[in-house]
Amino acid sequence: MIHPTGARAGVAGALAVSLMTAIAIQPARAQADADHPPLAPARDVQVQYAVQPDGAPAPKTIEAWFTANGGMMRIDSPEAMGSTILNRTTRQVTIVLNKQKVYTQFEAHNGIRNPFLLDLSMQFTRKGTAQVAGVSCTEWGVVSGRGTATACVTDDGVILREDGVDGDGMKGRLEATRVTYGPIPTSTFQPPEGYQMVTRHRVAPSHAVGGGQPVTGGAAQSGQ
Questions:
Q1: What residues contact residue 187 under an 8 Å CB cut-off, 6+ apart?
Q2: Domain that holds residue 107
Q3: What is the pLDDT of residues 157-193, one digit of tens each?
Q4: Which of 80, 97, 193, 224 has the greatest number of beta carbons closer than 10 A?
């Protein structure tokens, strides 16, 4: 589920170690049905994750912010190299590179590769309950077209732990180390003050850390 590089990893390390789950860019249902967990957080939340691709010597820490129902998301790379900001309502992707103090924006015509939400193309089996980072969650078995995984998801839709293979066939593990609920300022989802906007082709050569391309793709499938 997690991989450090590749065509769908985050730009310039914004998702240098990332979970790849393809979903359509439609409003997610926050409530849990009998046969699957909630598909997006029901309220604003900031989560710190330790993520570790299969074979990596140690986990890396990333920060993620989610607005209620998953409409806006921001994912910061390890060591503050950059950020990927996703607006699922407008289909806009913003890539921020901190070293260069630049950002680029574009529309994801064919959907967004969203690292931290589940989707209805997967099959789910309820397995039990657990606690991660002091927060209760339900364990789910997850089956995609590429393999199996387990995910521990809160009743309000936050993925706290996931281990196994994602829909792209990537294997790894993530686990929340801190969960903070509360309103998120709109500035969180905007480029920092003073950063210069550039076009995509000028940002692309700077893919020094994570490699790969923006968090977009045309393979999105969802029943949301």
A1: none
A2: 2-120+176-206
A3: 999 999 987 655 678 889 999 999 999 999 999 999 9
A4: 97
